[in-house]
């Protein structure tokens, strides 16, 4: 989803002239215009403005070419009667733009624009693909709510839920997916917890009947409660939940949560009632954090504890990454977190 122009304007206003920029070690050529650098939603960008020829925008994982229209497009205002006009409220305020922003938006040459700025620091861009920084191990994926059938054994793929996550998991030596009926079975179901434990301990020879060893376990949504609940036993649901949170805080290496429900392409579960607006449409941020220190969370995908602007469905990795926001890149986070 492309961001609104009004959201882009602050980044354009903050653009500064730079003498050079590189992408993957190669110099970005901008012989026919001016080279600018800026940051937008946590992402470094290099912009080559070539006047009426258009502009090129370079990021770590994207390249955008913008061409200007040869003819002005007239947008006619709708005809409204006086009573309707009086009820209309302003939805947008005027924004003051710099000389450089005017050049970028219109393609019109401005001989003074290059003199208005000092040269800023050069920009170095590189792709964000990662190699495994820890010990490669088998990976077990446990899904959350929404699956209404069960498979007895572990499966080698489950792309209808997890997308192409297997292409972005350099630490996984093999991929195994648990498929359980999370619609009709609760996370605190003792039989289901035992099934999960038996499957999780079957992946490596170093695991025992009661200990999971040398295994990367990835859970989504209620799958995390199922895993945490498997380490404890209680008779009351509230006690179960508190015990699961304790296990979660002590055992989780990395976590991805969300404090805003507008995701990559659409809004989902907005009708679900929440105490706080900080939610992914289904789960509140505080609940997802599970008692982990909030100061550990960052909205950049390089953080182990990642607070995003994704909805609940986006955090399965199925929808991939956004282009213009470091808080909307779940796949990059997963690829680089281990």
From TrEMBL:
It comes from the Eukaryota. PANTHER family: CILIA- AND FLAGELLA-ASSOCIATED PROTEIN 74 (PTHR22538), VWFD DOMAIN-CONTAINING PROTEIN (PTHR22538:SF1). This is DUF676 domain-containing protein. The lineage of its organism: Eukaryota, Sar, Stramenopiles, Oomycota, Peronosporomycetes.
């Amino acid at each position: 989803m492309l961001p609104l122009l009004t959201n882009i304007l602050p980044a354009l206003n903050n653009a500064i002239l730079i003498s050079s920029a590189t992408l993957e070690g190669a110099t970005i050529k901008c012989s026919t215009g001016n080279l600018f650098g800026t940051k937008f939603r946590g992402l470094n960008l290099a912009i080559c403005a070539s006047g009426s020829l258009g502009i090129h925008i370079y990021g770590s994982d994207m390249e955008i070419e913008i061409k200007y229209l040869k003819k002005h497009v007239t947008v006619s205002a709708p005809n409204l009667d006086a009573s309707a006009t009086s009820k209309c409220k302003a939805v947008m305020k005027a924004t003051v733009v710099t000389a450089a922003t005017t050049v970028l938006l219109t393609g019109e040459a401005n001989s003074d624009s290059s003199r208005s700025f000092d040269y800023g620091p050069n920009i170095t861009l590189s792709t964000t693909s990662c190699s495994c920084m820890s010990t490669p191990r088998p990976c077990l994926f446990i899904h959350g709510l929404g699956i209404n059938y069960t498979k007895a054994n572990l499966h080698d793929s489950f792309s209808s839920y997890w997308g192409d996550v297997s292409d972005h998991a350099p630490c996984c030596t093999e991929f195994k997916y648990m498929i359980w009926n999370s619609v009709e079975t609760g996370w605190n179901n003792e039989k289901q917890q035992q099934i999960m434990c038996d499957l999780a301990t079957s992946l490596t020879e170093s695991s025992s009947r009661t200990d999971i060893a040398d295994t990367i376990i990835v859970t989504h949504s209620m799958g995390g409660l199922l895993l945490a609940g498997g380490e404890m036993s209680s008779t009351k649901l509230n006690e179960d939940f508190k015990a699961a949170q304790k296990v979660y805080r002590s055992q989780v290496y990395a976590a991805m949560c969300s404090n805003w429900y507008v995701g990559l392409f659409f809004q989902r579960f907005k009708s679900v009632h929440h105490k706080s607006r900080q939610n992914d449409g289904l789960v509140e941020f505080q609940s997802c954090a599970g008692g982990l220190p909030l100061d550990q969370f960052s909205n950049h995908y390089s953080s182990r504890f990642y607070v995003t602007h994704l909805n609940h469905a986006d955090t399965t990795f199925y929808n991939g990454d956004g282009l213009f926001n470091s808080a909307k890149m779940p796949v990059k986070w997963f690829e680089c977190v281990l």
